[in-house]
Amino acid sequence: MNVLVTGGNGFIGSHTCVELIEAGYDIIVVDNFSNSELENIANIEKITSKKICFYPIDMLDYNGLDRIFKENSISAVIHFAGLKAVGESVKKPLEYYENNITGTINVCKAMRENGCKCMVFSSSATVYGTSSKVPFVETLPTFATNPYGFTKVMIERILNDLCMADPDWSVMLLRYFNPIGAHESGMIGEKPKGIPNNLLPYISQVALGVLPYVSVYGDNYDTHDGTGVRDYIHVTDLAVGHIKAMEYLFSHKGSEAVNLGTGKGTSVLEIIQAYEKACGKTIPYKVEARRQGDVAVCYADTKKAKELLGWETKRGIEQMCRDSWRFTQKK
Ligand code: WQD
Question: How many domains does the structure of the chain reveal?
Fold first, then answer.
Protein backbone atom coordinates (compact mmCIF):
# COMPACT_ATOMS: atom_id res chain seq x y z
CA MET A 1 0.00 0.00 0.00
CA ASN A 2 1.43 3.39 -1.09
CA VAL A 3 1.39 6.34 1.34
CA LEU A 4 2.28 9.82 0.08
CA VAL A 5 4.25 11.80 2.68
CA THR A 6 4.34 15.52 1.93
CA GLY A 7 7.28 17.21 3.68
CA GLY A 8 8.74 13.74 4.17
CA ASN A 9 12.28 15.09 4.18
CA GLY A 10 11.64 17.23 7.25
CA PHE A 11 12.16 16.52 10.96
CA ILE A 12 8.86 14.80 11.80
CA GLY A 13 8.23 13.67 8.22
CA SER A 14 11.52 11.76 7.94
CA HIS A 15 10.95 9.98 11.27
CA THR A 16 7.43 9.05 10.14
CA CYS A 17 8.81 7.69 6.84
CA VAL A 18 11.12 5.37 8.81
CA GLU A 19 8.25 4.09 10.98
CA LEU A 20 5.95 3.66 7.93
CA ILE A 21 8.55 1.56 6.11
CA GLU A 22 9.24 -0.51 9.23
CA ALA A 23 5.47 -1.07 9.56
CA GLY A 24 5.45 -2.50 6.01
CA TYR A 25 4.08 0.45 4.02
CA ASP A 26 5.50 1.70 0.72
CA ILE A 27 6.08 5.44 0.75
CA ILE A 28 6.41 8.23 -1.77
CA VAL A 29 7.93 11.50 -0.55
CA VAL A 30 7.18 14.94 -1.96
CA ASP A 31 9.21 17.84 -0.62
CA ASN A 32 10.51 21.16 -1.94
CA PHE A 33 13.57 20.86 0.32
CA SER A 34 13.09 24.47 1.50
CA ASN A 35 13.83 23.67 5.14
CA SER A 36 15.75 20.42 5.13
CA GLU A 37 18.86 18.89 3.61
CA LEU A 38 18.48 16.34 0.78
CA GLU A 39 20.62 13.98 2.87
CA ASN A 40 17.58 13.05 4.98
CA ILE A 41 16.21 10.91 2.13
CA ALA A 42 19.56 9.10 1.89
CA ASN A 43 19.58 8.59 5.67
CA ILE A 44 16.05 7.14 5.64
CA GLU A 45 17.27 4.72 2.95
CA LYS A 46 20.31 3.77 5.08
CA ILE A 47 18.18 3.20 8.21
CA THR A 48 15.55 1.11 6.39
CA SER A 49 17.64 -0.38 3.54
CA LYS A 50 14.82 0.65 1.20
CA LYS A 51 15.00 2.88 -1.86
CA ILE A 52 12.75 5.94 -1.50
CA CYS A 53 10.67 7.24 -4.40
CA PHE A 54 10.62 11.03 -4.06
CA TYR A 55 9.45 14.05 -6.01
CA PRO A 56 11.16 17.47 -5.49
CA ILE A 57 7.86 19.32 -5.99
CA ASP A 58 6.33 22.35 -4.24
CA MET A 59 2.75 22.10 -2.97
CA LEU A 60 1.89 25.21 -5.01
CA ASP A 61 2.58 23.19 -8.17
CA TYR A 62 -0.84 21.54 -8.62
CA ASN A 63 0.09 19.84 -11.91
CA GLY A 64 3.17 18.38 -10.26
CA LEU A 65 1.07 17.00 -7.41
CA ASP A 66 -1.50 15.57 -9.85
CA ARG A 67 1.30 13.83 -11.75
CA ILE A 68 2.41 12.03 -8.56
CA PHE A 69 -1.10 10.57 -8.16
CA LYS A 70 -1.29 9.70 -11.87
CA GLU A 71 2.04 7.86 -11.67
CA ASN A 72 1.35 6.05 -8.38
CA SER A 73 -1.64 4.35 -6.78
CA ILE A 74 -1.84 6.26 -3.47
CA SER A 75 -4.10 5.03 -0.63
CA ALA A 76 -3.43 7.74 1.97
CA VAL A 77 -1.61 11.03 2.45
CA ILE A 78 0.28 12.15 5.55
CA HIS A 79 0.57 15.89 5.08
CA PHE A 80 3.51 17.56 6.85
CA ALA A 81 4.65 20.07 4.23
CA GLY A 82 4.32 23.64 5.46
CA LEU A 83 6.19 26.63 6.86
CA LYS A 84 6.30 26.45 10.67
CA ALA A 85 8.32 29.25 12.28
CA VAL A 86 6.07 31.35 14.51
CA GLY A 87 8.28 34.44 14.48
CA GLU A 88 8.86 34.29 10.72
CA SER A 89 5.10 33.99 10.11
CA VAL A 90 4.56 37.36 11.83
CA LYS A 91 7.02 38.97 9.39
CA LYS A 92 5.79 37.07 6.27
CA PRO A 93 2.02 36.42 6.66
CA LEU A 94 1.27 36.29 2.92
CA GLU A 95 3.90 33.63 2.31
CA TYR A 96 2.62 31.58 5.25
CA TYR A 97 -1.05 31.78 4.21
CA GLU A 98 -0.27 31.04 0.57
CA ASN A 99 2.18 28.22 1.21
CA ASN A 100 0.30 26.45 3.98
CA ILE A 101 -3.33 27.03 3.01
CA THR A 102 -3.20 27.14 -0.81
CA GLY A 103 -0.70 24.30 -0.69
CA THR A 104 -3.04 22.16 1.40
CA ILE A 105 -6.00 22.95 -0.86
CA ASN A 106 -3.88 21.82 -3.83
CA VAL A 107 -3.04 18.55 -2.08
CA CYS A 108 -6.73 17.94 -1.31
CA LYS A 109 -7.79 18.75 -4.88
CA ALA A 110 -5.17 16.40 -6.32
CA MET A 111 -6.36 13.70 -3.88
CA ARG A 112 -10.02 14.21 -4.83
CA GLU A 113 -9.18 14.26 -8.55
CA ASN A 114 -7.45 10.90 -8.17
CA GLY A 115 -9.86 9.15 -5.82
CA CYS A 116 -7.77 9.35 -2.62
CA LYS A 117 -9.80 10.64 0.36
CA CYS A 118 -7.70 9.66 3.39
CA MET A 119 -5.48 12.30 5.04
CA VAL A 120 -3.53 12.60 8.28
CA PHE A 121 -2.84 16.31 8.79
CA SER A 122 0.06 17.75 10.78
CA SER A 123 -1.67 20.21 13.07
CA SER A 124 -0.34 21.70 16.29
CA ALA A 125 -1.16 22.50 19.91
CA THR A 126 -0.72 26.06 18.79
CA VAL A 127 -4.42 25.96 17.80
CA TYR A 128 -5.28 26.13 21.52
CA GLY A 129 -4.00 29.70 21.45
CA THR A 130 -3.56 31.18 24.91
CA SER A 131 -6.21 28.98 26.52
CA SER A 132 -5.37 28.72 30.18
CA LYS A 133 -7.24 25.48 30.68
CA VAL A 134 -4.47 22.85 30.89
CA PRO A 135 -4.38 19.99 30.17
CA PHE A 136 -5.54 21.00 26.67
CA VAL A 137 -8.44 18.80 25.51
CA GLU A 138 -9.57 18.47 21.90
CA THR A 139 -13.01 19.98 22.58
CA LEU A 140 -11.50 23.38 23.49
CA PRO A 141 -12.22 26.14 20.95
CA THR A 142 -9.37 26.84 18.54
CA PHE A 143 -7.72 30.20 18.06
CA ALA A 144 -4.25 31.49 17.34
CA THR A 145 -1.91 34.32 18.27
CA ASN A 146 0.16 34.39 15.05
CA PRO A 147 -0.23 33.75 11.30
CA TYR A 148 1.44 30.32 11.54
CA GLY A 149 -1.07 29.27 14.19
CA PHE A 150 -3.95 30.69 12.15
CA THR A 151 -2.90 28.57 9.14
CA LYS A 152 -3.35 25.49 11.32
CA VAL A 153 -6.71 26.74 12.65
CA MET A 154 -7.94 27.50 9.13
CA ILE A 155 -6.71 24.26 7.58
CA GLU A 156 -8.47 22.29 10.34
CA ARG A 157 -11.64 24.24 9.44
CA ILE A 158 -11.17 23.52 5.70
CA LEU A 159 -10.68 19.80 6.31
CA ASN A 160 -13.69 19.60 8.64
CA ASP A 161 -15.84 21.35 6.02
CA LEU A 162 -14.53 18.99 3.32
CA CYS A 163 -15.61 15.99 5.41
CA MET A 164 -19.04 17.58 6.01
CA ALA A 165 -19.48 18.15 2.26
CA ASP A 166 -18.26 14.70 1.21
CA PRO A 167 -18.75 11.89 3.75
CA ASP A 168 -16.33 9.70 1.83
CA TRP A 169 -13.38 11.60 3.30
CA SER A 170 -11.42 10.34 6.34
CA VAL A 171 -9.29 12.99 8.05
CA MET A 172 -7.21 12.99 11.23
CA LEU A 173 -6.04 16.33 12.65
CA LEU A 174 -3.03 15.54 14.82
CA ARG A 175 -2.20 18.30 17.31
CA TYR A 176 1.46 17.97 18.27
CA PHE A 177 2.85 19.44 21.43
CA ASN A 178 6.64 19.89 21.47
CA PRO A 179 8.39 17.26 19.32
CA ILE A 180 12.08 16.78 20.24
CA GLY A 181 14.77 14.08 20.15
CA ALA A 182 16.03 12.04 17.20
CA HIS A 183 16.02 8.54 15.74
CA GLU A 184 18.01 6.11 17.94
CA SER A 185 20.53 5.60 15.11
CA GLY A 186 21.56 9.26 15.34
CA MET A 187 21.25 9.47 11.54
CA ILE A 188 18.17 11.72 11.38
CA GLY A 189 17.06 14.43 13.78
CA GLU A 190 16.21 18.10 14.10
CA LYS A 191 18.56 20.31 12.09
CA PRO A 192 16.91 23.71 11.50
CA LYS A 193 18.63 26.09 9.11
CA GLY A 194 20.21 29.14 10.82
CA ILE A 195 19.84 30.08 14.50
CA PRO A 196 17.24 27.74 16.08
CA ASN A 197 13.98 29.27 17.35
CA ASN A 198 13.06 26.26 19.47
CA LEU A 199 14.59 25.31 22.81
CA LEU A 200 16.03 21.85 22.11
CA PRO A 201 17.95 22.57 18.91
CA TYR A 202 19.25 25.74 20.57
CA ILE A 203 20.47 23.82 23.64
CA SER A 204 22.12 21.22 21.39
CA GLN A 205 24.13 23.96 19.62
CA VAL A 206 25.26 25.31 23.02
CA ALA A 207 26.28 21.78 24.08
CA LEU A 208 28.24 21.49 20.82
CA GLY A 209 30.01 24.79 21.59
CA VAL A 210 28.58 26.51 18.49
CA LEU A 211 26.46 28.95 20.55
CA PRO A 212 27.68 30.47 23.87
CA TYR A 213 24.63 30.10 26.14
CA VAL A 214 20.89 29.52 26.24
CA SER A 215 18.62 32.53 26.78
CA VAL A 216 15.92 31.45 29.23
CA TYR A 217 12.90 33.52 28.25
CA GLY A 218 11.53 34.47 31.67
CA ASP A 219 11.76 32.88 35.11
CA ASN A 220 8.77 34.62 36.68
CA TYR A 221 5.96 32.50 35.28
CA ASP A 222 3.48 30.91 37.65
CA THR A 223 5.24 27.53 37.47
CA HIS A 224 7.22 25.46 40.01
CA ASP A 225 10.55 27.05 39.02
CA GLY A 226 9.29 30.15 37.23
CA THR A 227 10.27 29.00 33.71
CA GLY A 228 7.95 27.95 30.88
CA VAL A 229 6.43 24.46 31.02
CA ARG A 230 5.79 22.40 27.87
CA ASP A 231 4.79 18.87 26.86
CA TYR A 232 7.90 17.51 25.12
CA ILE A 233 7.28 14.38 23.06
CA HIS A 234 9.89 12.09 21.46
CA VAL A 235 9.73 12.43 17.68
CA THR A 236 9.67 8.63 17.28
CA ASP A 237 6.64 8.34 19.59
CA LEU A 238 5.05 11.09 17.50
CA ALA A 239 5.85 9.24 14.25
CA VAL A 240 4.24 6.03 15.53
CA GLY A 241 1.16 8.08 16.43
CA HIS A 242 0.77 8.97 12.75
CA ILE A 243 0.63 5.33 11.72
CA LYS A 244 -1.96 4.55 14.38
CA ALA A 245 -3.97 7.56 13.14
CA MET A 246 -3.75 6.49 9.49
CA GLU A 247 -4.79 2.93 10.32
CA TYR A 248 -7.78 4.28 12.27
CA LEU A 249 -8.84 6.18 9.13
CA PHE A 250 -8.82 2.99 7.06
CA SER A 251 -12.00 1.97 8.89
CA HIS A 252 -13.55 5.32 9.82
CA LYS A 253 -14.99 8.21 7.77
CA GLY A 254 -15.25 11.84 8.86
CA SER A 255 -12.74 14.00 10.76
CA GLU A 256 -11.25 13.77 14.26
CA ALA A 257 -8.81 16.02 16.14
CA VAL A 258 -6.40 14.19 18.44
CA ASN A 259 -3.61 15.46 20.74
CA LEU A 260 -0.20 13.79 20.46
CA GLY A 261 1.61 14.56 23.69
CA THR A 262 2.85 12.87 26.86
CA GLY A 263 0.39 14.63 29.18
CA LYS A 264 3.35 15.73 31.33
CA GLY A 265 4.82 19.24 31.66
CA THR A 266 8.59 19.91 31.84
CA SER A 267 10.15 23.32 32.53
CA VAL A 268 12.96 25.01 30.63
CA LEU A 269 15.36 24.55 33.57
CA GLU A 270 14.44 20.86 33.86
CA ILE A 271 15.16 20.39 30.14
CA ILE A 272 18.54 22.08 30.53
CA GLN A 273 19.37 19.81 33.50
CA ALA A 274 18.32 16.72 31.53
CA TYR A 275 20.46 17.77 28.57
CA GLU A 276 23.47 18.36 30.84
CA LYS A 277 23.08 14.79 32.10
CA ALA A 278 22.79 13.47 28.52
CA CYS A 279 25.84 15.31 27.16
CA GLY A 280 27.99 15.34 30.31
CA LYS A 281 28.60 19.09 29.99
CA THR A 282 27.39 22.25 31.72
CA ILE A 283 24.91 24.21 29.59
CA PRO A 284 25.40 27.92 30.37
CA TYR A 285 22.22 30.00 30.39
CA LYS A 286 21.07 33.55 31.10
CA VAL A 287 17.58 34.53 32.23
CA GLU A 288 16.17 37.15 29.89
CA ALA A 289 12.80 38.83 29.29
CA ARG A 290 9.78 36.70 28.39
CA ARG A 291 9.33 36.01 24.66
CA GLN A 292 6.27 37.66 23.13
CA GLY A 293 3.43 35.20 22.55
CA ASP A 294 4.71 32.55 24.97
CA VAL A 295 2.26 30.96 27.38
CA ALA A 296 3.33 29.81 30.86
CA VAL A 297 2.11 26.22 30.70
CA CYS A 298 1.08 23.93 27.85
CA TYR A 299 0.54 20.16 28.03
CA ALA A 300 -1.85 17.63 26.53
CA ASP A 301 -4.89 15.74 27.70
CA THR A 302 -3.97 12.32 26.27
CA LYS A 303 -7.18 10.36 26.89
CA LYS A 304 -8.57 10.57 23.34
CA ALA A 305 -5.32 9.34 21.72
CA LYS A 306 -5.30 6.34 24.03
CA GLU A 307 -8.99 5.50 23.66
CA LEU A 308 -9.40 6.21 19.92
CA LEU A 309 -5.98 5.18 18.57
CA GLY A 310 -4.67 2.88 21.29
CA TRP A 311 -1.54 5.05 21.32
CA GLU A 312 0.54 6.55 24.12
CA THR A 313 4.12 7.72 24.43
CA LYS A 314 6.87 5.33 25.55
CA ARG A 315 10.01 7.55 25.76
CA GLY A 316 10.86 9.99 28.55
CA ILE A 317 12.78 13.28 28.72
CA GLU A 318 16.11 11.59 29.48
CA GLN A 319 15.89 9.47 26.29
CA MET A 320 14.76 12.49 24.24
CA CYS A 321 17.89 14.38 25.35
CA ARG A 322 20.20 11.35 24.90
CA ASP A 323 18.89 10.73 21.36
CA SER A 324 19.11 14.44 20.50
CA TRP A 325 22.71 14.60 21.72
CA ARG A 326 23.71 11.46 19.78
CA PHE A 327 22.36 13.04 16.55
CA THR A 328 23.94 16.44 17.33
CA GLN A 329 27.37 14.89 17.79
CA LYS A 330 27.11 13.04 14.46
CA LYS A 331 26.43 16.15 12.37
C1 WQD B 1 9.67 26.04 24.52
C2 WQD B 1 9.93 26.74 25.84
C3 WQD B 1 10.14 29.13 25.60
C4 WQD B 1 13.81 28.93 23.16
C5 WQD B 1 6.81 26.08 19.28
C6 WQD B 1 5.70 26.55 18.39
C7 WQD B 1 4.66 25.46 18.28
C8 WQD B 1 5.29 24.16 17.87
C9 WQD B 1 6.42 23.78 18.81
C10 WQD B 1 5.01 23.88 15.52
C11 WQD B 1 9.15 28.03 25.99
C12 WQD B 1 11.46 28.51 26.04
C13 WQD B 1 12.69 28.62 23.91
C14 WQD B 1 14.91 29.56 23.81
C15 WQD B 1 13.70 29.53 25.89
N16 WQD B 1 5.78 24.23 16.55
N17 WQD B 1 12.64 28.91 25.24
N18 WQD B 1 14.80 29.84 25.15
O19 WQD B 1 7.18 27.97 21.66
O20 WQD B 1 6.49 25.93 23.05
O21 WQD B 1 6.31 25.87 20.57
O22 WQD B 1 7.35 24.87 18.82
O23 WQD B 1 3.92 23.42 15.55
O24 WQD B 1 3.73 25.87 17.31
O25 WQD B 1 5.10 27.67 19.00
O26 WQD B 1 8.55 25.82 21.61
O27 WQD B 1 10.93 25.33 21.89
O28 WQD B 1 10.26 27.64 21.08
O29 WQD B 1 9.84 26.99 23.46
O30 WQD B 1 13.61 29.80 27.12
O31 WQD B 1 15.97 29.89 23.19
O32 WQD B 1 11.32 27.11 25.89
O33 WQD B 1 9.89 30.34 26.29
O34 WQD B 1 8.81 28.17 27.37
P35 WQD B 1 7.10 26.49 21.81
P36 WQD B 1 9.98 26.46 21.94
Answer: 1
